[in-house]
Amino acid sequence: MDLKRCERFLVFGMARSGAAVAQLLGDRGYRVYVYDENSEALSRFAKSNIAGNENIEVLDAGAVGERITGVDCMIVSPGIALSHPHVACAFQNSVPVVGEVEVAYQFSDQTIIGVTGTNGKSTTVRMVGDIFGAAGIKADVAGNIGYPLAEAVSSGRAEVLIVELSSFQLDTIDRFRCDIAALLNVTPDHLDRYENSFEKYRASKARILNRADSRSTFVYNADDQAGRDLALVFPGTSLSFSSSMPVAPGACLGKNKIIWCEDGTTLDVLALEKFGPVGVHNIENAMAAACIARSYGIDFAVVRRALESYRPLPHRMEMVRVRNGVAYIDDSKATNVDAALKSLRSIDGPVIMILGGRDKDSDFSAIGDQAARIRSAVLIGEATGKIKASLAGRCEISTAASMSEAVRMSADAACAGDTVLLAPACASFDMFSGYEERGNVFQECVNALD
User: Fold this and answer.
1) Catalytic one among 144, 221, 282, 285?
2) Which CATH superfamily hosts domain 318-447?
């Protein structure tokens, strides 16, 4: 639907993206009602400068039900399931439901580069942003990375928007279309949100190609089945990347370097010895970024310079400390099994692995299959029992009641040349406010070791 023709909106969920879309609409003269079941979040918004806009009204719990049936559109936070009773009420009363990304898109006139995938999204959009900055192109990195797309559109400072897109955000798009769309990988994650169906989750990720046409470009991982399947029917230009085989046109691995293959020729993109991030998954992220830059016409000399200068985001294979010959690595962002496996495989030598947290209906057996790499597994959180069953008889296992205890047990088990790796393969919300806090606590505990 054409959101510009609406008059009244209800924003449900008042975290940063909800506040940003309320401001975008309120500043343009639309009537905006806002609500959040979290009273603290709603109170914070009510005290903000944005809430002072005369077009914005904060609703209490008693008023929201009536307002749902009287608005032209509901804008729902990505963290709210589409099965929520308020959202279901909107559907039942033929009130369209979209997300903040859809609204921002319909009010934007910038080039849109969208990046999705189970793992690597934040790193890749950061790399792409650095490349575009090095090329002198005005670009903003926005979306699921923490800077709402609506906020970026409102600022009007960029000609290109590089957007990290989660499956939850893609579930609520309508007219949204990427000029350049990248799908990094699709592996099981968030299955608790998708009725334990990997196919439904994969279909959600495929919406990165919503409304794609002959003008669109698709960047995909040739080692990933979902990307290959979509490329077969994609109507525009496709570029691929691979860490295991030659591809063309696209980026792949040569001898200790990333190379570009096209029209029977190859070009050197990046010597791996000059690339800081650890692990083949980060090399794949760099190849995806190179494909996106190439599709926009950026010279590889610029790509090389930006990637050589790139430094990892916090809590993503971040080296914390080397103590008594033991390396301590924080990969708290490894919130699913596939991410944890990639982290584990990127490390040479024995690993003491800290695992666990809140399960997302994951299958941990694949970690058990890699148990030969694990000297000892230290388990924390709600998923302890399930992970223990998958690792039983395959490696040494211990359990800890806190991160502090897990770090101390790991330090006691480690020998010089080992790596202590925090790669939980789970969400953090059983013990922490998010993966950031989990990683910060891990680092504090590691640095507190004698």
Assistant:
1) 144
2) Mur ligase, C-terminal domain (3.90.190.20)
